[in-house]
Amino acid sequence: MSTLRPSRRSYFHPYPKYLQISDLLRRRVLTELGVGERLPTEVELSRAYGVSRETLRQALQPLAEEGLITRTRGLGSVVAARPSEAGKPKLTGMTEDLVALGLRTSTKTLRQDIQAADPEAAHYLNLPPSQQVVRIDRLRYFEGAELSLHSAFLPIDVGAKVLQRDLDHTSIVIILRKHLGYALEEDQQIVEADAADVTLAEALHVRIGAPILLVRRLYITRGERPIAYFKSWFNADRYHYTVKLRQPGIKARSSTQTKKQPRRKPPASREGA
């Protein structure tokens, strides 16, 4: 029988202990055990992790729901399967690219209102602190399942025009560029790893603490005026981000070529979530 050793690393605070243990067990099932191997008993696991058997059963339940283990009374828990990467393709490309490709995406508007800009949005939009902005939160689906959560922050004069458009069937970038005639240019794009908090876990239908891809994007228009700031959280199980650096037939630029320095990034604020 294989044994599972409790990790010496700190648990993922501040998530409930059963989720912390569930994550540790998931990693060990995926990296140390083979299909058909049996996990230690509930008594052994509860003793190893210092929790009650009830808490241990809560930790095992998500693994069973994911199909990683089977649980049988009297027989314990057995590794059932490995996730199939081939049968689970991930999307790549920004939302407007997915729309342009005609993929079956749909959007549900969760929020659209006027609010005082948080420090992060005010910084990127080059507005005074607490200046009012239009905020639009939308949940995007692909083939009926949650793909991403988007928060858009726009200056009042721009956002008021966007609010008059149909937000459930296209992207805000497409509305700004094609329907409102703004000459848009993407000025910054920042990609980060994040973990799902309670709000993101509920919106994207993932477990608390699950890996999330956070993409921040700033668009400017003529005169380098910031016109739209986006924060997008993507379900990492259904999306990956790729960048092609070399174009066939085009010589690489000299390594001594200077680049325009991006604006300094302020400390991230969760208020925009």
Describe the structure.
The strands form 2 sheets. A 6-stranded antiparallel β-sheet has the order 3-4-5-8-7-6. A two-stranded antiparallel ribbon has the order 1-2. Helix 1 (17-31) crosses helix 3 (53-65) and helix 2 (42-49) crosses helix 3. The chain folds into 2 domains: 17-79, Winged helix-like DNA-binding domain superfamily/Winged helix DNA-binding domain (Arc Repressor Mutant, subunit A, Orthogonal Bundle), CATH 1.10.10.10; 95-242, Chorismate lyase (3-Layer(aba) Sandwich), CATH 3.40.1410.10. The protein is α+β, with helices and mostly antiparallel strands and 273 residues long. The protein is 26% helix and 27% strand. It has helices spanning 17-31, 42-49, 53-65, 95-100, 119-125, 156-162, 172-179, 198-204; strands spanning 69-72, 76-79, 105-116, 132-142, 145-155, 185-195, 211-221, 225-235. Mean pLDDT is 76; it is low at 1-14, 85-94, 96-103 and 250-273. The chain has 8 helices and 8 strands. The radius of gyration is 23 Å and the shape is elongated.
